[in-house]
Specification:
The chain is an alpha/beta fold. Helix content is 47%, strand content 13%. The protein has a single domain, classed as NAD(P)-binding Rossmann-like Domain (Rossmann fold, 3-Layer(aba) Sandwich). The protein is built from 8 helices and 7 strands; from the N terminus they run βαβαβαβαβααβααβ.
C-alpha cells in the first residue's frame, strides 16, 4: 500500500478521533495518535492498529500547553521524517446554564477547544510553511454554527474555530496550505452518554435523516479533505449533520 503521508490527530483515543485514526491508518497514512488523559483507551487503539501492521505511534500532549504541543510535533517529524496533515479534533463539552458557568469552566473550554487549535496549527506551520504544502482540518460543531442552549461556552469556542479556519485559510492560501473545518451534527459518541433514551429519541426525531451520525462518517469527510481531490478546497465549513441544520 502506498503511503499517502503523515497525519497528527489530536484527541484520537476516543469517539470521532478514534474513528479518524482507524480510517487514516487503514488508508496507509502514518498516524500520530494524540491523547491527554485517556491513556488506556489510546494504548488499546494503538495495539489494535499495530496488530494490523498499520503505521501508528502514540504521543501524550495537553494541547492547551504550547510546550507539549511543540514536543508532539517535533516527535512526529523525527519519527516519520515529515508531516502533511493536522487534524485538530481534541475537545471537551459541558452542559450548564449560562448563569452557572464559572470562570474556570469558561477558561478550560476556551483553552482546550480554541487555544488548543491555535497551539497545534502554529506549531505545525513551523514545518509546513517552508515547504509550501500541508493541510489543516479543524473539527468544530454544528453548535458553532447555530449555538446551543446551556452550552454557551462550548458554542462560543466552536464558533471561534470556524472564524479561525476562514481567516487562516486566507492567510495560508498563497503558501499552498489548505485549512478547512468539519462541523459535525449530533454524532453517537461518548459525549452523548449522559443523555437518556428519551432524549436521544427526541434528538433523532429532530434530524431529517431520522438517526444520529456515526463517527466513521465524520472520518470519511476528513479523509476527503486530506486527499488530493480536495486541493482546491480551503476556508470551507462542511457540516455532516443529517439535515439537522440546512
Amino acid at each position: 500500500m502506498e503511503n499517502p503521508g503523515t497525519v497528527i490527530i489530536t484527541g484520537a483515543s476516543r469517539g470521532i478521533g478514534k474513528a479518524m485514526a482507524k480510517a487514516f491508518a487503514g488508508k496507509g497514512y502514518n498516524v500520530l495518535i494524540n491523547y491527554n488523559k485517556s491513556e488506556n483507551a489510546a494504548k488499546e487503539l494503538y495495539s489494535q492498529l499495530v496488530e494490523k501492521n498499520l503505521s501508528v505511534e502514540l504521543c501524550r500532549a495537553d494541547i492547551a500547553k504550547r510546550g507539549e504541543v511543540d514536543f508532539m510535533v517535533d516527535f512526529c517529524i523525527k519519527k516519520y521524517a515529515g508531516l502533511d496533515i493536522l487534524i485538530n479534533n481534541a475537545g471537551i463539552s459541558q452542559s450548564k446554564l449560562f448563569t452557572d458557568i464559572e470562570e474556570h469552566d469558561w477558561d478550560e473550554m476556551i483553552n482546550i477547544n480554541l487555544k488548543g487549535v491555535f497551539n497545534c496549527a502554529q506549531s505545525v506551520l513551523r514545518y509546513m510553511l517552508p515547504r509550501k504544502r500541508g493541510k489543516i482540518i479543524n473539527v468544530s460543531s454544528v453548535w458553532g454554527i447555530v449555538g446551543a442552549s446551556c452550552e454557551v461556552h462550548y458554542s462560543a469556542a466552536k464558533a471561534g474555530v470556524i472564524g479561525f479556519t476562514k481567516a487562516l485559510a486566507k492567510e495560508l492560501g498563497p503558501s499552498n496550505i489548505q485549512v478547512n473545518c468539519i462541523a459535525p451534527g449530533i454524532i453517537k459518541t461518548e459525549m452523548l452518554d449522559s443523555y437518556s433514551p428519551q432524549e436521544l429519541d427526541d434528538l433523532k426525531n429532530s434530524i431529517p435523516l431520522m438517526r444520529l451520525g456515526r463517527p466513521e462518517e465524520i472520518a470519511a469527510c476528513a479523509l476527503f479533505l486530506a486527499s488530493k481531490d480536495a486541493d482546491y478546497i480551503t476556508g470551507q465549513v462542511i457540516s455532516p449533520n443529517g439535515g439537522f441544520v440546512i
